[in-house]
Amino acid sequence: MHTLSNAFVTGHLQVAPDIINNLQFTAAFGAALNRWTFIPVPGFVLNTLLGKERAVMLLEGQRVEPTKALEVGYKFQYPTIQAAFEQLTR
């Protein structure tokens, strides 16, 4: 709704301000479900199963920041991964 009500906003605003890695994501997901998280999968296993180009997303990830969204004054309803998971698991 923010982009619809503000004509000066263009493009995508899909990245939350809480920058986390895969380990933090997995831990928050497990906590939200009240379950322990699994033992990490070794990198060579992911490289073998997914191929190096796909495995890099899980092994290294991407550091994406919501610079544009914050510049135009967008307020995130769930600014942290914990808040988002709490909402999803209600």
In short:
The protein has about 90 residues and is an all-alpha fold.
What does this structure look like?
The chain is mainly alpha-helical and 90 residues long. The chain is 49% helix and 0% strand. The protein has helices at residues 2-5, 22-32, 43-50, 52-59, 67-71, 81-88. α2 runs parallel beside α6 and α3 (43-50) crosses α4.
The rounded Rg comes to 16 Å
- The computed structural class is mainly alpha
| Largest pleated sheet | none
Rounded mean pLDDT score: 81
Total beta strand runs: 0
What's the SSE pattern?
HHHHHH
Residue share in β-strands: under 5%
* Number of helices in the DSSP assignment: 6
Task: Determine the N-to-C terminus distance.
Answer: 24 Å
The shape is flat
Low-pLDDT stretches = none
- The level of helicity is 40-55%
Please give a handful of descriptors for the protein shown.
mainly alpha; 49% helix; 90 residues
Helix and strand arrangement:
Elements: H1 2-5, H2 22-32, H3 43-50, H4 52-59, H5 67-71, H6 81-88
Helix pairs in contact: 2-6, 3-4
